[in-house]
Amino acid sequence: MADQDFKYIIQDLTNIYLGARSTYEELMEDENVPHKLKEIIVRVMLTEVAPDTTPENHVFYMEKDSASFKAYKKMKARFKMSVWETADGKKRKKSGYVNREYSVEEIVGSKELHEKKDTIIVEEVHISKLGLGAVVV
């Protein structure tokens, strides 16, 4: 899969969908990203990580007490990921990737996901527009 497959910004009435392989710098330059989200990126995310960091990489290195974690939590961010699951013979007949959506709290708090981070494909970040409006910058 090419990196371009996961670089997009889509909005509907209630959510903003970001391709997880766009860097924070690319998101800042895109005119489709809401101004408030750009402010959060500048004032919160970029104080903790470099501009060439992607949300895909950032989520696995967040701490529960970091400002980035708190901002993503307030925005009700959910990460759509493909997680490799091995066959167990009962529920799963074949090994393969399974699409799941995780909240930022589930990812940061899960040792299992951190152990599998090299095989996980983070595809998308869903941000609630209502949650985005609740963040104070």
> What fold name goes in the CATH topology slot?
Uridine Diphospho-n-acetylenolpyruvylglucosamine Reductase, domain 3
Number of strands: 5
CATH class: Alpha Beta
CATH architecture: 2-Layer Sandwich
Overall mean confidence score, pLDDT:
91
The biggest sheet, with number of strands, parallel, antiparallel or mixed sense and barrel status, is: 5 strands, antiparallel
What class do helices, strands and sheet pairing give?
alpha+beta
Alpha plus pi helix count: 7
Strand fraction band? 15-25%
The residue fraction in helices comes out at: 25-40%
Radius of gyration based on Cα positions: 15 Å
- Which stretches are low in confidence, meaning pLDDT under 50 for 5 or more residues running? none
- Spatial order of the strands in the main sheet? 1-2-5-3-4
What pattern of helices and strands is seen along the backbone? EEHHHHEEHHEH
Specify the overall morphology. globular
